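A.,

Following up on our hallway conversation. Structure tokens first:
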């Protein structure tokens, strides 16, 4: 990714520096997209780590200090914490600043943040559809957003120039940018991300309950498909609790449809209806192929895992965190 000719924003403030915040910091710095980075994080341990990793030029104890004087403020905390951050930073924001976030749910964040932001700033909510199951400032990397989507959900009446500037910023971070309505975003993400996470959490939970199976057999035979669910089910509990609490309607709607379709499959199995099963599995295989074709997944077998190479286990997330 080439460096920008000149910074897109002078001063960037990151409120919260975990996986997403630290990836933005790394990519923005590496690609020359901002002149200065200010940051704040909730815990002393994270602030210390952000300073050690040199992710920001200045690390502040309070969110208000970090946000003051910034031209672009990006709130990178769990969805349920965004409203309280807006209350804190609202009074100190610089007129003309662009204020954004990275939350995985959009309508609830607009509802919680917008009333606390002054009319003099431009609020442009965003969601980078990119991530891993790891958390904290050590987990981030500059390439996280490369060729991934970032969805902007500005409300009606937002200054188009502010939207364009944020779009240019995310494109320079490596993303493809799409603009859509917040409610539409929440519906699409409910089926493509939120419900799949819920299914993964649930299947791992069910296996855990089947004590006689989990003792050793689940680990031993996990490559049969279970292992891929466990990766998703290792995602951050705070983040995902907030996603489900704040995208309730869309998730419940999609879960309803999912249950109906599951009933069709259950029935096909019960009555030996192989044609229904075969036809459905053929259609889903085509969907996998189209995801590979648009570059959102590797075509390598088994997700490109190297067989025969024993990799050391990933470090436990956030060993330094106090909570
Ligand atoms: P993360 O690695 O856990 O980092 C979260 C950051 O928020 C940390 O700096 C944490 O501070 C801070 N924080 C946590 N609770 C807070 C609270 N109640 N008040 C203020 N600050 C708080 O999380 P992340 O994966 O970067 O996720 C951040 C946001 O990005 C979430 O809204 C999530 O929905 C969204 N997102 C995540 C992914 C993903 O795959 N992870 C993808 C796209 C979007 P401490 O470290 O001091 O606790």
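Then the amino acids I'd put at each of the 323 positions:
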């Amino acid at each position: 990714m080439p460096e920008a000719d000149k910074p897109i924003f002078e001063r960037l403030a990151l409120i919260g520096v975990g996986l997403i915040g630290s990836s933005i910091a790394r990519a923005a710095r590496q690609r020359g997209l901002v002149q200065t980075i200010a940051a704040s994080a909730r815990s002393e341990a994270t602030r210390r780590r952000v300073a050690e990793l040199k992710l920001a030029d200045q690390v502040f104890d309070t969110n208000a200090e970090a946000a003051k004087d910034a031209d672009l403020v990006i709130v990178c905390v769990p969805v349920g914490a965004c409203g309280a951050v807006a209350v804190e930073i609202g009074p100190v924001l610089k007129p003309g600043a662009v204020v954004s976030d990275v939350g995985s749910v959009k309508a609830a964040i607009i509802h919680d943040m917008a009333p606390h932001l002054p009319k003099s700033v431009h609020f442009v909510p965003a969601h980078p559809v990119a991530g891993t199951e790891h958390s904290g400032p050590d987990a981030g990397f500059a390439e996280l957003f490369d060729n991934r989507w970032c969805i902007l959900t500005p409300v009606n009446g937002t200054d188009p120039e502010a939207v364009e500037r944020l779009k240019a910023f995310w494109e320079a971070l490596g993303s493809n940018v799409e603009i859509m309505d917040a409610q539409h975003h929440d519906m699409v993400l409910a089926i493509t991300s939120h419900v799949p996470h819920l299914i993964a959490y649930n299947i791992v939970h069910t296996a855990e309950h089947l004590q006689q199976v989990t003792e050793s057999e689940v680990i031993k035979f996990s490559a049969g498909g279970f292992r891929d669910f466990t990766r998703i089910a290792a995602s951050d509990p705070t983040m995902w609790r907030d996603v489900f609490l704040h995208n309730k309607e869309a998730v419940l709607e999609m879960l309803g449809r999912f249950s109906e379709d599951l009933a069709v499959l259950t029935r096909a199995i019960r009555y030996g209806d192989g044609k229904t099963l075969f036809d459905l599995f053929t259609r889903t295989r085509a969907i996998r192929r189209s995801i590979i074709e648009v570059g959102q997944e590797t075509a390598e077998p088994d997700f490109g895992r190297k067989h025969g190479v024993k990799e050391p286990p990933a470090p436990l997330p956030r060993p330094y965190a106090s909570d």
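The first helix runs from residue 19 to 30. Curious whether your intuition agrees with the design.

B.
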